[in-house]
Amino acid sequence: MAGTETRAQIVDAADRLFYEHGYEHTSFAAIAEAVQISRGNFYYHFKSKDQILDAVIAARLERTRGMLDCWTAGESNPAGRIRRFVEIVVTNRADIQDHGCPVGTLTSELAKLDHPALGEAKGLFVLFRSWLGEQFGALGQYDRADELAMHVLAFSQGVATLAQAFRDEDFIRREVERMLAWLTTVTPVDSATEGDDCSGTQATP
Hints:
By secondary structure, the chain is mainly alpha-helical. The chain has a domain at 57-186: CATH 1.10.357.10. The chain has helices at 3-21, 28-35, 39-45, 49-74, 78-91, 93-99, 102-113, 118-138, 145-166, 169-186.
């Protein structure tokens, strides 16, 4: 297995394990077992779990930027782009009900640990906030762009938290419909969206 491929597989496995079990409760051994490589090969790529965490956060940021760029290119109407963001909690509803929001759960855990990587992990929220603000700005909501972006982020986090607590898929769908209805009061939403393959998993804000 090529070195770059091995490293990527370690990061992918750690990403999933951090999400499903938490950073603190995921061991080197668990990651190595998931990738099925020797300890020596593992330590060749990463000397500490913190190094893996940094790589996981960087990978999430890259993946999220790609998803947002895809939405921007695939949706001519900024309102349609916001709609895609809102609907991602339905797209990822199974994982959310089991494990919560990958961004929210990681930042919450790192905050409790007072971990130095908290700032980098929070960068995912900053990325979503900035992108949503740009969309609202493009819709003419210049003065309220950041306020509206934070409102949509708060919605996604609230739905993810309660969906995990109650494991209620109908709740997720109802709240998404309510948010989309609210969006039409802010600006008309073009209900027609262009098909693409931008959704992916673990991109939920």
